[in-house]
Design brief:
This protein has 452 residues and is of the alpha/beta class. The chain is 53% helix and 12% strand.
């Protein structure tokens, strides 16, 4: 069965969740486009399964709103697609036709039985191996010929495959949050996977307009394999700096170093908050369980969780407080475990004193956002990193050590067989984490010499 045929009957498990809803949106869009392109000759079913009926109601509202926005942005293309529809004259009519077309495929349900006969099953439920196995066993009895695409961010796919078992009919299909916006998709192939499933996954990624990177089936894969170890470097530096500056102050400094001195879109602790402190701890635990000879655990993250500080996002996508306190979506303070509350940046001159301690940003610095679309980005980064390598300021030294460690992590992902190449590591970090440069790059050669 080819991809077009499989797309005629698709199910999403955990469809009302943060990841599932984005996957559902992508699929509804693609199905609508396929239906229009076929002249209306093909029929589609998109079963959206979740355990909460009220959440499914919210999902349908979300899909309608997002499909309407997409239609508004694609009016010219839609007008061409609907050229043979004489009844569609106004732009609003065309947009409404597209939205209703896409929604007509959607079948929200709380019943697993409704998935019977699906050809493709996207799994985006809770990151709990036992729950995944229990649900997939029930689904596979209803869909014995289905291909499965799991959005797990860390659990080895082979563990799920053997636990059901699915006999090679499952791949990791790791979308990045939010799936409808993020371009990156990690495709993870377990041992014994059916080759045609991998081909189907790659073909589907292209239809969904994703940049697909292939990863091997080692817990954490490429993106989280790098990110989790990046976290551990940052927290180890916090521990050293805290001996003189205090722990909250040290975390403030490392967050600033990892964002401004390294020209990343977020500081490391802001990124942890975005993902969720408990999610990061969970991924570390999974990696520790499945990677022999390496223990990934962090005392600082554990103590934050014990204090009830979790980060993550609200249902509307706004940021919850975590290591940092957010006001209007921007960091405004940092959590101090010794005080049991947030210390605000604007209170007193402590933040300014720490900025002074870090020292000035090297010449040639430009913020991440300014360089993101700059055609001369690479030239400007080369100048900046050259000056960073020469700088002896504390912030520069911390950044240099961080960059060297980041490259070591990336190189080990390749040598351990998680990634097939340096380009795959760099591609995942640049497309999934929006870094301006990959961890393995010529600029870090200067840092190695400087750190030594």
């Amino acid at each position: 069965m080819d991809l077009d045929a499989r797309l005629e009957n698709v199910a999403v498990l955990g469809a009302a969740g943060k990841m599932g809803s984005g996957i559902a949106l992508l699929l509804a869009q693609e199905m609508a486009k396929q239906k229009i392109a076929s002249g209306g000759d093909r029929s589609y079913v998109l079963t959206l399964m979740d355990v909460d009926q009220s959440a499914l109601t919210g999902l349908m509202s979300y899909l309608r709103a997002q499909l309407t926005k997409l239609g508004e942005k694609s009016t010219i293309a839609l007008r061409a697609d609907y050229a043979d529809r004489a009844d569609l004259v106004e732009n609003g009519d065309i947009i409404n036709a597209f939205v209703e077309e896409a929604l007509s495929f959607c079948r929200p349900t709380t019943s697993l039985d409704a998935i019977k006969g699906a050809n493709l099953v996207f799994e985006a439920i809770i990151e709990d191996k036992n729950i995944k196995l229990d649900v997939l066993k029930k689904i596979d009895a209803l869909c014995p010929d289905a291909y499965y695409l799991t959005n797990t961010s860390s659990i080895p796919i082979g563990v799920i495959d053997k636990g059901v078992p699915l006999n090679g009919r499952i791949i990791g299909y790791h979308f990045y949050n939010p799936p409808a916006v993020q371009k990156l998709l990690e495709l993870i192939s377990p041992e014994g996977v059916k080759p045609e499933l991998v081909e189907t996954g790659v073909e589907l990624a292209k239809k969904l307009r994703k940049k697909v990177f292939l990863a091997n089936d080692i817990a954490g894969f490429i993106g989280n394999g790098h990110f989790m170890r990046d976290i551990l470097h940052a927290t180890s530096e916090v521990k050293k700096l805290a001996q003189e500056a205090g722990e909250a102050e040290a975390a403030y400094m490392m967050n600033r170093v990892s964002q401004e001195f390294m020209i990343r879109p977020m500081g490391i602790f802001q990124l942890i908050d975005y993902v969720g402190i408990d999610v990061c701890r969970f991924i570390m635990n999974v990696m520790t369980e499945h990677i022999e000879g390496e223990t990934l655990s962090d005392d600082l993250l554990n103590r934050m969780a014990e204090a009830g500080v979790m980060g993550g996002q609200h249902a509307d996508g706004s940021q919850k407080d975590g290591f940092l306190k957010y006001e209007r979506g921007r960091p405004a303070g940092i959590y101090d475990l010794t005080k049991g509350g947030y210390v605000m940046f604007a209170d007193g001159d402590w933040a300014a004193a720490l900025d002074s301690k870090l020292g000035s940003l090297p010449d040639g610095h430009a913020p991440w956002r300014a360089l993101l679309m700059d055609p001369k980005k690479d030239e400007k980064l080369e100048v900046y990193f050259g000056n960073l390598a020469k700088s002896g300021a504390l912030g520069s030294n911390l950044a240099k050590a961080y960059l060297v460690r980041s490259r070591e992590i990336g190189e080990k992902l390749v040598s351990d067989g998680v990634a097939n190449s340096v380009d795959d590591v760099n591609g995942v970090m640049m497309n999934g984490f929006y870094h301006l440069y990959g961890p393995i790059n010529k600029h870090v050669d200067l840092m190695v010499d400087a750190v030594r």
